Amino acid sequence: MQVQLSHPTRTVEVKGPKKVKDLLRELNLVVEAHLVIKGDDLVTEDEMLYDQDQIEIRPVISGG
Amino acid sequence: MNCTKCKTKAVIGLPRHNAAFCKGCFNSFVHEQVARAIKSEWMFGKDERILVAVSGGKDSLALWDILLKMGYRADALYVNLGIGTYSEQSYAKVMKFADAVAISHGAKLHLHTVEQEAGAGIKELAMLIHRPTCSTCGTIKRYQFNRVAIEQQYDVMATGHNLDDEAARLLGNVLHWQEEYLDKQSPSLPASVEGFAKKVKPLFRLSERELAAYAVLNRIDYIVEECPMAKGSKMLQYKEVLNRLETESPGTKQTFYLGFLDKQSKKQPAATTMTEKDRAVLHPCASCSQPTTADICSYCKMMARAKAHAAS
Ligand code: SF4
Ligand SMILES: [Zn+2]
Ligand SMILES: [Zn+2]
Question: Using CB atoms, which residue from B55, B208, B246 is nearest to A60?
Fold first, then answer.
């Protein structure tokens, strides 16, 4: 699956099927600091993601 | 994962509340948390006029959205800092939200452009007067926010500070034992003198992740990119540490900050002592008449220096 990341903006390819929770762990990202968006929808940590899915992992922390 | 309330498919899990919600139930949860914050800290009532400081980021736009949907009279102020593409993009997001949502609620957007008044963007201005960009920025935003609130007779100013902001700030203050700042960490600061508007933080019960989720779920288009000046800031480091703790033991941030508020409220009425303290030292600036501890306020001093440099 295509996974879009921010800061800096980049795309990585990850092999599915995979749970959201495991995807975050694999990329070494903390759940509390990120949202996972599949297509246009927010998904929970137990959601299974497949190879054809478009995923965005959005950081939610701002520095101001 | 299913919604704790209505058992349909959940879109977000909230470990710190031991819950998961669908979109509808999550929106109700967010509104309830804000309602609770407003009530417990005596922030404002339904007929008071509120001025929201918006930056184009998720928190401030979510705050404006929430207040309007809850039926409050909330206008907003956007300060254009003139920081390259960051400012251009954030300005576009604010305008888009104002046109798409705020106008239909009869709300108004005020604008202030730093470049117009100071003759330069915030970065150039900071360089000119030899001060860090973020402190220059803070002075200008605070000043303009207060000026518009007073001039346009708003009853209260609201900012989008969330649980993460407040917990990180508290951590910073405690790590350095800056006790004198602790009194100012109340989510509701009274109008302390003639010329200072009341300040509130209605989102202090909601985490940064919850607010981002609210924005995504309600199709609020916000700027995901950070202000380039925030990179590597202390606040970011504190937030990172807190979020690692939060992931291991959900509820850490709320126990830390809400527990602090609880202790403060039992200690003494912090708000009154601060008001008294402020009253004793503040008086109107000789140049612009906003409250200050010096003869000339720091904003006017800054502008005078910038103009002197620009002229020479
Ligand atoms: S990071 Fe600094 S310059 Fe950027 S908006 Fe925040 S205070 Fe202003
Ligand atoms: Zn539900
Ligand atoms: Zn002044």
Answer: B208
Q: Which domains does chain A have, with CATH numbers?
A: 2-59 (3.10.20.30)
Q: Residue whose CA is closest, atom 2 of ligand 1? A: B134
Q: Which structure tokens are listed for B240?
A: 């990172």
Above 0.85 for ipTM, yes or no? Answer: yes
Mean pLDDT of chain A: 94
% of chain B residues with pLDDT over 90: 79
Write the residue with the smallest CA distance to atom 1 of ligand 1.
B230
Contact B227 A43 (CB under 8 A): no
d(Cα B163, Cα B205) in Å, to the nearest integer?
Answer: 6
To the nearest whole Å, the CA of B12 is away from the closest chain A CA by: 5
- Please tell me the predicted confidence (pLDDT) of residue B81: 95
Nearest CA in chain A to B19: A44
Question: Is residue A21 very low, low, confident or very high in pLDDT (cuts 50, 70, 90)?
Answer: very high
CA separation for the pair B145, B151 (Å, rounded)? 10
Confidence (pTM): 0.93
- 3-state SS track over A10-62: EEEECCCCEEHHHHHHHCCCCHHHEEEEECCEECCCCCEECCCCEEEEEECCC
Q: Is A18 on the interface with B (CB under 8 A)?
A: no
> CB A61 to CB B243 under 8 A?
yes
Distance CA B145, CA B285 (A): 16
Q: How many CB pairs under 8 A join A and B?
A: 78
pLDDT of B208 higher than 60: yes
With CA atoms as reference, report the closest residue to B60 among B145, B137, B139: B145
A58 → closest Cβ in B57, B224, B226 = B224
What confidence tens digit (pLDDT) does each residue in B30-43 have? 999 999 999 999 99
Predicted pLDDT of residue B149: 95
- CATH code of B23-239+249-281, in short, is 3.40.50.620
Atom of ligand 1 nearest to the CA of B135: 7
Q: Which two tokens stand for residue B19?
A: 């819950």
Q: Measure the CA–CA gap between B149 and B156, rounded to whole angstroms.
A: 7
Neighbouring residues of the ion ligand 2, judged by CB less than 5 Å: B 3, 5-6, 22, 25
